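Record 1 of the preview.
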Amino acid sequence: MIIRLTKKLLLSFTIPLKMKKLPLKIALLLTVIISSSNLFAQDFQGKAYYMSKTTMDLDQFGGQDMSAERKKQIQERMKSFLEKEFTLTFTKSESIYKEEEKLEAPGSGGRRGFGGSLTGGPKYKNVQTKEMLQDQEFFGKQFLVKDELKTIEWKMGTETKTIGQYTCFKATAMVEPTGIDFQSFRRPRNGNQRKEGEKGKDSTDSNEPAKPKTIEVVAWYTPQIPVNQGPDNYWGLPGLILEVNADRTTILCTKIVLNPTDKETIEKPKKGQKVTQEEYTEITTKKMEEMREMYGGRNGRGGGRGRN
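->
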């Protein structure tokens, strides 16, 4: 029965598409989806575990004069901020994306200070109602970011690769990043020299906030798990997204559990001052600009200290 149905569906795809390379892949995907349909009943739930890693160019933050050893020390200290683990609990329509809590090593500073203020809380997405909610703390104040789940204009590709036991297809999109633009926190190479004659509007040394940019996002999704969910802000593909590459950040799925014995309740975040994503970005950007001015002022007064 499954084989007959697959053939009929395959013909309905191949005739209008008029492509020679797609039928075998479509047949494979249809066979997998149909044969595993019992897994995805109305009460279906899954849990995916992700690792997120972000690289940072310290030269953009005043690190041009640092030694390689010093840069390595700073990167190690920032490791807990730049490398994180998350879980995505999902159904066909809802998902909640949470950072895994870790026991910090003594002396590491934990989540306090600057890095802790930029740590996002649980992110809820509903792909049917297009609702997005995130619990977010910023410098001691609690916010509830509530906004419409934005549609991502994915371009579907035919390239495939295997992640774990899953066959994944490639999709790309151009998106505008949300949240804080760290480029606006850059430190000029030499504030005193710039005052004496350097170009004030130089694109590399400017202390002005960088303009929003559009970045290419590459996603790998598996139709073997036919839900259009994914980590962080990513969704909208005909299968669970297992890998995302966006600018300097890579998110990779390391483990998947389907229909766990003990299912979790997906609860919407509720605490905090309600703001839209645009309002929250404006609040955080303003705070970052204040910190940048304070940091730049201290650098200007004490720029020559320690260089005798």
